[in-house]
Specification:
The complex is a heterodimer of chains A (195) and B (185). Helix content of chain A is 79%, strand content 0%. Chain A has 195 residues and is mainly alpha-helical. Chain A folds into 2 domains: 1-139, no CATH class; 140-195, no CATH class. In chain A, helix 1 (5-22) crosses helix 4, helix 3 packs across helix 4 and helix 6 (143-157) packs antiparallel against helix 7. Chain B is mainly alpha-helical. Chain B folds into 2 domains: 3-101, no CATH class; 135-184, no CATH class. Chain B contains 8 helices and no strands. In chain B, helix 1 packs across helix 4 (58-101), helix 3 packs across helix 4 (58-101) and helix 7 (148-163) runs antiparallel to helix 8. The chains are: A mainly alpha (195), B mainly alpha (185). Chains A and B meet through helix 1, helix 2, helix 3, helix 4 and helix 5 of A and helix 3, helix 4, helix 5, helix 7 and helix 8 of B.
Chain lengths: 195, 185
């Protein structure tokens, strides 16, 4: 084995440590990091898998950033990979919050912190836009997927529904649609046979 | 119950019952930690503010902060381990079986619906953060309430990431400086 489990785990730790240190504003903002570090640089997973991973980790308990670290780590190097990727993504928050809790309780009133956050927030919007664009290009290809995506967006933004109901309904609809297409194809195949 | 064990247990419970990401945890976290007398409501609001200003998920930040405040470094370790452990086990099981059953028609059918829905979810989160970031509260007309400085930083960051392939981490650092620069200017 040229790339041992241990070596892979150490790289996973380091990659997710950096992701953890720079992920502001929730789990989705880490998608461009994952694309860059996991897909482009290390070729650990395919770009197509990124949407699937986020679909799955979103549907189980836990925090998106941590869950996706565990999932990617496990896929690449089993238990050790999952462990070190998770440790890596958690450690920066752990260190920063410990320091703040112990020494810098007044941290949020420090000069320039608010201004820096103001800039970071705008960049997070850009990071998330690039995630929507890149992932959308890969997984939204037909009328069906456009419809689901728009319905999900509208039901959440306008009608305020939660993420979990949206995912449950979308999963069921996807299953139903695939079954319907399958039976249609089967019926068409049967017609061909009859002729 | 031993305080350290209790921290682990309470945060494991929080980790287990939170589906759909960090901020969904706020009500549950608030209930558990005020019930146990670990923090007051003001403390919770402080953690939310600090979480917004530091990297990392809210749940992890809350666990570390409360752990260290109630039982020192050991408390922080156990509370953080607690919040991570349930999902760690569940996600590993899912990853294991997902790789095996990925091509099963039922999984593919579910994913057919889940994939575009996830894009919708991310678009929703993006839209919400964009509204928060681009609109100034309390301004009169919609036009006047648009925060131009924020949109400039957004535009530069978007061009940097998509066109010039600047590393996201570097883009975050640059934007922090742009924020300071534009605000002071």
């Amino acid at each position: 084995m040229s790339d041992s489990i241990l070596k892979k785990s150490m790289r996973l730790f380091w990659v997710f440590f950096r992701i953890g240190a720079f992920t502001f504003g929730g789990g989705y903002a880490m998608i461009p990091f994952i694309e860059r570090e996991i897909v482009d640089k290390n070729h650990w997973i395919e770009s197509e898998d990124v949407v699937d991973i986020f679909a799955i980790v979103q549907s189980v308990p836990g925090v998106i950033a941590v869950n996706s670290a565990t999932f990617v780590g496990y896929r690449i190097a089993g238990f050790a990979g999952a462990f070190f990727a998770t440790l890596g993504v958690v450690l920066p928050s752990f260190i920063i919050l410990s320091v703040i809790a112990l020494f810098l309780y007044d941290f949020k009133n420090y000069p320039y912190i608010r201004e820096a956050m103001y800039g970071i927030k705008a960049a997070v919007v850009a990071l998330m836009c690039s995630a929507v664009y890149k992932l959308g290009k890969k997984s939204i290809k037909d009328t069906f997927s456009w419809a689901i995506c728009i319905l999900a967006f509208v039901s959440m933004v306008i009608f305020g529904s939660g993420a979990i109901p949206v995912l449950v309904v979308a999963g069921i609809v996807g299953l139903g649609f695939t079954a319907w297409q399958g039976s249609k194809a089967a019926a068409a195949g049967k017609k061909e046979d009859d002729r | 119950m031993n305080l350290l064990l209790k921290l682990f247990y309470i945060f494991a419970k929080i980790g287990l019952f939170t589906i759909g990401g960090g901020y969904a945890m706020i009500p549950l976290i608030t209930e558990e930690i005020t019930k146990n007398g670990w923090l007051t409501m003001d403390g919770v609001i402080d953690i939310i503010a600090i979480s917004e200003m530091t990297p990392g998920p809210f749940a992890i930040n809350a666990a570390t902060f409360i752990g260290i405040r109630t039982a020192g470094l050991a408390g922080a370790v156990l509370a953080t381990a607690g919040v991570v452990t349930p999902s760690f086990i569940i996600v590993m099981l899912v990853a294991r079986y997902f790789t095996r059953f990925k091509d099963h028609p039922i999984i593919q059918g579910l994913l057919k619906g889940l994939r575009p829905a996830v894009i919708g979810l991310i678009a929703t989160a993006t839209f919400r953060i964009a509204m928060e970031s681009f609109l100034v509260e309390g301004a009169g007309s919609v036009l006047r309430s648009v925060d131009l400085k924020s949109i400039i930083i957004f535009g530069l960051a978007l061009a940097g990431i998509i066109k010039y392939k600047i590393h996201p981490a570097l883009m975050i650092v640059i934007s922090a400086f742009l924020g300071i620069l534009l605000c002071i200017w």
